[in-house]
Amino acid sequence: MRHLGDLVARSYEGAVSWVDRVAVFHRAVELLDPVIRRVLTEADAAFLDNTGEITRRSVEQGDGSVGEHWELSWPRQREAVSRDGGPVAPVQVIAWFRRSFNHAHLRGSIAGDWPLQVTSTDDATRQLPIVRAIVEAELHQRIYEGRYPVMPVAVRKYGLPPG
């Protein structure tokens, strides 16, 4: 409902000016950080045999848009060649706030956009299933791009394909 209220009021959690809306975004990012790291750590343990590295970086675009990227990379992914001959990207969870939008969104590199309505630790915790869905979609995409040997758990459990 807060998302709908924002759309009607042309605000973001009550903030109207761009500067104030960006402050709301940065607070949401800080509240979400432990939730996103938790899910990425779970994925690392379950699929990557704890070989992954989690990084976070801020992104700013020329029009003032801002974003925060969390990435989970691992040796097999970094060494893999995708189906189209390029690199296999890391798993990504992205919080972004386009200058032309009322409010920020949460997404993966391939998985849709969810409204980023986070102003408390309870709101951040409420995002846990969304972040898990994003990471699951990202992992599936990396398996598609790099084929199953990109996942250490698959190699450990099923071995490498013959020659």
Describe this structure in words.
The chain is an alpha+beta fold and 163 residues long. It has one domain (2-157). It is built from six helices and five strands. The longest helix has 30 residues, at 18-47. The mean pLDDT is 92.
Q: Tell me the helix content.
A: 40-55%
Q: Kindly report how far apart the N and C termini lie.
A: 55 Å
Number of domains: 1
- Relative strand content: 15-25%
C-alpha Rg (nearest Å): 17 Å
Large-scale geometry: elongated
Query: Major beta sheet, specifics?
Result: 5 strands, antiparallel
Question: What order do the SSEs take from the amino end to the carboxyl end, as H and E?
Answer: HHEEHEEEHHH
Number of helices: 6
Low-confidence stretches: none
Enumerate the strands of the largest sheet in spatial order, edge to edge or round the barrel: 1-2-3-4-5
The number of strands is 5
Mean pLDDT: 92
Helix- and strand-based class?
alpha+beta
Show the helix and strand layout:
Layout (H helix, E strand, L loop, with lengths): L1 H8 L8 H30 L5 E8 L5 E8 L1 H5 L11 E7 L7 E3 L6 E2 L5 H6 L1 H19 L5 H7 L5
Helix pairs in contact: 2-5
